[in-house]
């Protein structure tokens, strides 16, 4: 339990937090990253973030985790203004009304962001969440699930992106059949260990297998790249002293 203590659920009330398929992750005690498609049409007064959750039934009984209100939604401007490149900019930052409690009791923590110009080669990583475990299941998993992913080697994935007129290193490209991403909620993190042994946020689960930039017969899935949007993340969270200490 709580193997990935930065994972959160996002919804408009307690029941919504339990039944939907919307995830995200804490990058600081006051900021959450998720997919823009999850929240672009919501107003911040309606949104809660559930933290410290492993088992949804235990969360409903208030035996673990808690929910906290969102103070502001910041959606990447290119997601709103450019329909042709929405896939690249499917990211939003949520600012919470108060910092979450980073302590052992709730087993809550934050995930590292990659450094600028981080290049992922043929890395193995993880996605996790409470999503479905098969194409025929329509309800969330009761407990947090995880599955391994394998990134395409850089030259191969950039060739794939170029074929679809997309910039180099603009998306995380995961190859199948190893990547079975059913368990991940939309907006959940793609997690890869860095050379210090810490997990870092390589990307976000967004369109996955049905990503519009992937041909029907192509054995790949695409996710938003954190490094590609790192400067935007810095700009919209620049006053967060925990995230960007001087």
UniProtKB/TrEMBL annotation:
Entry keywords, A to Z: Disulfide bond, Hydrolase, Protease
SUPFAM superfamilies: Trypsin-like serine proteases
Gene Ontology biological process terms from the UniProt entry: proteolysis
InterPro entries in alphabetical order: Peptidase_S1_PA, Peptidase_S1_PA_chymotrypsin, Ser/Thr_Proteases_Immune/Dev, Trypsin_dom
Keyword Manganese in record: no
One Pfam match: Trypsin
PROSITE patterns xref list: TRYPSIN_DOM
Signal peptide, first to last residue: none
Protein family per UniProt: Belongs to the peptidase S1 family. CLIP subfamily.
UniProt protein name: Putative trypsin-like serine protease
Keyword Hydrolase appears in the UniProt entry: yes
Domain Peptidase S1: start-end pairs: 1-238
Gene Ontology terms for molecular function: serine-type endopeptidase activity
């Amino acid at each position: 339990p709580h193997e990935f203590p930065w994972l959160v659920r996002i919804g408009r009330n307690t029941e919504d937090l339990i039944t939907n398929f919307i995830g995200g992750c804490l990058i600081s005690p006051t900021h959450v990253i998720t997919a823009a498609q999850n929240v672009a049409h919501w107003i911040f007064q309606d949104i809660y973030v559930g933290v410290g959750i492993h088992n949804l039934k235990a969360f409903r009984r208030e035996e673990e985790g808690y929910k906290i209100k969102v103070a502001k939604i910041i959606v990447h401007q290119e997601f709103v203004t450019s329909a042709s490149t929405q896939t690249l900019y499917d990211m939003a930052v949520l600012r919470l009304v108060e910092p979450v409690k980073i302590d052992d009791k709730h087993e809550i923590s934050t995930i590292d962001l990659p450094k600028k110009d981080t290049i992922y080669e043929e890395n193995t990583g993880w996605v996790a969440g409470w999503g479905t475990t098969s194409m025929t299941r329509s309800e969330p998993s009761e407990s947090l699930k995880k599955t391994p992913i394998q990134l395409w080697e850089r030259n191969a994935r950039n060739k794939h992106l170029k074929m679809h007129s997309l910039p180099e290193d603009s998306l995380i490209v995961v190859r199948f059949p190893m990547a079975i991403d059913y368990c991940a909620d939309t907006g959940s993190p793609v997690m890869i260990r860095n050379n210090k042994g810490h997990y870092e946020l390589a990307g976000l689960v967004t369109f996955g297998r049905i990503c519009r930039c992937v041909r029907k017969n192509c054995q790949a899935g695409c996710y938003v790249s954190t490094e590609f949007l790192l400067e935007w993340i810095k700009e919209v969270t620049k006053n967060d002293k925990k995230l960007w200490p001087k």
